[in-house]
Amino acid sequence: MFVCDRGMVSEANLRLMDEAGYDYITGLRMASHPARKALSRQGRYHRIEREGKSELWVKEAVVDGERYIICYNPDEAERERAEREEMETNPKALIRNRG
User: For residue 23, which phi and psi values (nearest 5 degrees)?
Assistant: First the structure.
């Protein structure tokens, strides 16, 4: 069983794990992944309260025989929305020096 974060995931890596017969759990950015179909599957989100952290909305979906656990963090979505808005109004926000 492999457990990977989004930084290790590529279509090639997923294909290699599948071909080798490994199970895996990985984080995916759904925006560009074929599994995006899972987002439109019916099903109710379950809210999970986390002590000291924002709540998390979670649901399960099966697409083409693959099981997906979809997580949505409303606070993170708001933070990302605000960042996008800042980039639209202030293009210099795209340049970040994190070094």
Answer: -85, 155
